[in-house]
Specification:
This protein is mainly beta and 308 residues long. 9% of the residues lie in helices and 37% in strands. Strands 14-13-16-10-18-19 form a 6-stranded antiparallel sheet, with no helix packed on it. The longest helix has 23 residues, at 2-24. It is globular and about 55 Å long.
Length: 308
């Protein structure tokens, strides 16, 4: 009888422990295309409370405890917000965007057989660096040159990057975390002036963390006509590693201070923030920062190779 009482108590404790463990279990979901039902890699998932992550190559992500509503966004899909309680089937479907490229034309010319020129800031002097961060995007606006007699074609995206790890001096970032990069081209919004939420090159070009971007940049699959409204060159840092939004990623983006008019914008997705001008960052309002940068703000060393 005595043994039975002990057995019942032990069984009760095990049941309660199992229930608590189940309640604490994190929820794994897979994000898929609503039409093809194929998994979508590198979808940005915002958890709230200034945190978020990306789906992996199989479209999967673990939703942390405490997240009640999540927002999913991808340049090729409609943004979607759902409650975690509603994700009963562990699958979330995103609807592909219907993109109207308007004036943007795509041609099947081989960029290697055409003489090209460079536009942007990649040749400017490097005067500071911007550390990469998960869910962080930076964009440089390159205007259409009124002296062009006809629209040139964009053949490749350029980015001046620093792959060194010499800045890893703190214990929490001693191990380098290399990011996958998404390079993209977007037109400016006619009202706000910030990058539109549609890509003009089919969602951008992904550069794996194992690949470095050299001086020749990344060639587009097909050249596109330079939009007369101008174009934003966008770079996004992506990692599926368990790091905070404030953790620095490799590579860093080189920056210059030579711009009279700053055309650089940034976006902090996992802080729930939309695009803002680099010069509007609160840190640049600080007197000490203004003196350090000589009352200038850093501009992103991004650019394009074009054929005139």
């Amino acid at each position: 009888m005595k043994h039975q009482k002990h057995y019942r108590k032990l069984l009760f404790l095990l049941v309660m422990l199992s229930a608590a463990t189940f309640g604490m279990a994190q929820q794994a979901v897979t994000v898929k295309d609503s039409i093809t039902h194929e998994a979508i890699p590198f979808v940005s998932v915002y958890f709230g409370n200034e945190s978020g992550g990306y789906t992996d190559e199989q479209g999967s992500i673990v939703i942390p405890n405490g997240a009640k509503q999540i927002r999913l966004s991808h340049i090729c899909y409609e943004t979607k917000s759902v409650t975690t309680a509603a994700v009963a089937a562990q699958t979330i479907f995103l609807v592909p965007k219907s993109i109207n490229l308007g004036e943007v034309a795509v041609v099947a010319k081989s960029p290697k057989r055409i003489k090209v020129a460079e536009v942007g800031l990649t040749k400017a002097k490097t005067q500071t660096k911007h550390k990469g961060a998960n869910g962080f995007e930076m964009a440089l606006f390159i205007p259409y040159d009124s002296m062009w007699t006809e629209a040139p074609y964009i053949h490749s995206i350029l980015a001046s990057l620093d792959y060194s790890t010499s800045w890893l001096v703190f214990k929490e970032i001693k191990t380098p975390v290399y990011a996958t990069l998404r390079l993209d081209l977007r037109q400016p919004d006619s009202v706000t002036g910030d990058p539109k939420r549609e890509s003009i090159i089919g969602g951008g070009v992904l550069v794996p963390s194992s690949q470095k971007i050299g001086k020749d940049g990344i060639y587009l699959p097909h050249p596109v006509a330079f939009p007369r409204s101008g174009v934003f060159v966008v770079i996004e840092w992506i990692t599926t590693a368990q790091v905070s939004e404030s953790s620095n990623l490799i590579p860093s983006l080189n920056m210059t201070l030579n711009e009279e008019e700053n055309c650089t914008w940034n976006k902090k997705t996992f802080r729930g923030m939309d695009w803002m001008r680099e010069e509007d960052e609160p840190i640049y309002k600080d007197v000490a920062t203004q003196e350090y940068y000589k009352r200038r703000t850093p501009s992103a060393k991004l650019g394009l190779k074009i054929s005139k």
